[in-house]
Write a structure and sequence with these properties.
Layout: E1 2-6, H1 10-22, E2 27-31, E3 37-38, H2 43-48, E4 59-60
């Protein structure tokens, strides 16, 4: 089975992980329109609350699982 997940915020990543958990043989591809992938949709709250030292640490360019 081939699956395309559009968007890599919480819902997209959760969907991809669930599909792989339930169908390990599935070929899952996650597509994101932005150049960086953020796993912290609450990033502003973390930044204001001084929980992160650098905004660069809230992003990654690689999504391999």
């Amino acid at each position: 089975m081939k699956v395309a997940v559009i968007g890599s915020t919480h819902a997209g990543v959760f969907a991809a992980k669930q599909i792989k958990a339930e169908v390990p043989d599935a070929e899952v591809h996650v597509f994101e329109k932005n150049q960086t992938v953020s796993f912290l949709s609450c990033g502003i709250a973390l930044w204001i609350g001084d929980h992160v030292s650098s905004t660069e640490r809230m992003f990654t360019n690689h999504l391999n699982h």
